[in-house]
Amino acid sequence: MSKLSLFETVLASTVHDMKNSLSLLMGELDTISQKLEAESENLQTISTIRYESSRINQSLIQLLTLYKLDNNQLSIQKLEVEVADFIEDCVAAHSLLAANKGIQLDIICDDMMIWFFDPDMVGIAINNILGNSIRYTHSRIVISINLIEGHLVIQIDDDGSGYPENMIQNPGDFIKNTNYSTGSTGLGLFFSATVAQYHQREGRQGRINLKNGGDLNGGCFQIVLP
Amino acid sequence: MYDFLSKSKILVIDDFAGFRQTIKTMLSRLGANHIDQSSNGSEAIKRCTEENYNIIFCDYNLGEGQDGQQILEELHQRSLMRRGTLFIMVTAETTKAQVMGAIEYRPDAYLTKPFTGDQLGQRLKRLTLKNTALNPIYIAISANEINRAIAICDEVIVTSPKLKYSCLRIKSELLEQQGRKDELNDLYNDLIKDQPVLWALMGLGRLYYNDGEVSRALEHFLSMRENFSTQVSLLDWIARCQNQLGQAEKAQETLQQAINISPKSVKRQATLGEVAASLENHELAQKSFAKTIAEGAYSCMLKPQHFEQFYDNTREVAKNLGGREKSRLMAETENVHKKMERTYQKDPSAMAANLSSAAMLYSSMGRSDKTSSLLSKLSTTLENPDCELNEKQASSIDKHLQSFSDDSSNDKSLSKIASRLSVIKEEIKAKEESADKTQDKSLIARELNAAGIQLTKNERYLEALGKFREAIKTAPENMNYLLNAAQVILENKELKCSLDKKKEARHYLVEVIKIEETDVRWKRYQKLLSRVTNV
Hints:
The complex is a heterodimer of chains A (226) and B (535). Chain A has helices at residues 3-35, 40-70, 83-100, 119-136, 165-169, 174-177, 187-198, and strands spanning 79-82, 104-108, 114-117, 140-148, 151-158, 200-201, 204-205, 207-213, 218-225. Chain A has 226 residues and is of the alpha+beta class. In chain A, a hairpin with a 2-residue loop joins strand 4 and strand 5 (151-158). In chain A, helix 1 (3-35) runs antiparallel to helix 2 and helix 4 (119-136) runs antiparallel to helix 7 (187-198). Helices cover 69% and strands 5% of the residues of chain B. A five-stranded parallel beta sheet of chain B has the order 2-1-3-4-5, with helices on both faces. Classes of the chains: A alpha+beta (226), B mainly alpha (535). At the A-B interface, helix 1, helix 2, strand 1, helix 3 and helix 4 of A face helix 2 and helix 6 of B.
């Protein structure tokens, strides 16, 4: 076996294994948190454990997916997606966590909308951004979906203190955004930008936008898909 | 809590007991009562023959044995799932199964581990809502009213625009079944005008292929590669076209790519074996059939001829080998052979055809002891009254036997086999020549009846009735078939409302008039009869 394919096998099966453990862990966590519902002092601890395990999970997924995209083992597969359902699924993954932290999560989306994109890849991207928003927001997150000039725009607004200036200047630039002192690598934004760029149609390319302010006067993330 | 879950029968398939328990806990919390579990494919399929599930959760990666996609394919092929059963594929990696899945058999949803109870509940609720909206279409289909089903598809698109693609997909399948090519062509072309809709593009290619325009189909499929480079179904179709057009080497290459992405498909491995053998690439063919057999251990896709092809290609490979390599091949052959004898111990026809090619392989490897025992087993198998060879099997055995003519040690078995074989061949010939094909017919009728019973179990009554009707047409005097046909009409709410159908049932019961009171079926007959006379 060549060095690369050995690494590939080990990487894939190790990630698989870790994810299985995480599945169990998170399942058990659900059970515990339902039992402990009344004791609010535990809620904070549980929600931290939940948040960190889902972060590990998302990092693993992003790592493996980027690796595979890079090695042509994966490609973007555009499918017809019922957008409202898609977004609800993304939000459902975070609803318990948001509830525990007392954060209000709202979706603004036309229920009948259908768009073409890779729901798995974009799903991973959105999940990660949502996870981060929950970490940094104050009390609210709004996800709004719009069709603007032939592009699907998924926008995530929060009322936190916003993105750091260097991220806004270079959204998705992995190297520039890595900050070892805060532990923030910008992997999530890098992943979102990569996935968006892989979405192309009639000469147009997907992208991400970051700004501060927005509807809730906090951070504002957009993924734009042609 | 979800009300619909309390009435649903649910099956959870995962090799990991901890995870089965996790899903079970989540489902119970959401209100489910009836939850069964299986740890592997063969167990799961057995359960599905005994119970009609409303929801099946299946892990994609089940370790040894079948994977989730293979289970789904087998359930479809053996009609073990009711229309409207939700099949949910659970994956560890978000994207993998989507790419590896066959476009023909797709789950209703993918769910990625880990997920929370909220996610699960929401997904189930939505799938059930969707099913409810599509249900009128399913009802029309199972009543065999295809035109009405198509009309309902169009209605649902208007009332629930977001189900547009689901409806169009069902509609396209119905049009394909009916051979309405022009409408199908329009539907596909209309869809792909704006966006590369995978299933519509695949359908269009299939349409060209089935119309005999193989080069056009190939060109079309190749043009899809840019957008869907890792989709294995697409690669399968490209290989199929290439092979059809005499580009066997290219087909071989394409299939190898597909197998790199998804190595577990029994059918794909066998196809690669056949293509490689046609190119006299016996080494690759041998490997492919070995994998076909290994992966097919519990699959309905594994056929007796795959063993024969393994033996024949192994023989070719062995010619050029010596020493350790040859011993390794020998050991592999021993393993496969044991599997063959186990698999076909109750199917003497398949056994006989395979024994002759196995004997030839062992003989060419210089294993005279084993060769003799195989030949004497072949001789006994051929005497078995249940051994009904078809012409292809008989001539294949004949061909294999020719090669033993120089070896005198097995003369006794060989001459016995040869004389039995010539009798069998005479019988086959006689059967063909005689206008009366009663035996074949009874076999066909038996199969039709069995299919009807299976469909009834799955509550697809109208399709079942269709099978029973055909069985009766083939064997008009068989009381079982007549009773089954009558029963499927009279015990179904919708069917028995139709006066024509009721008349039909009465007609069947009139035909069973010869039944005697001592017959075990007498009570059943009386009961059915009372239902038609009541009107």
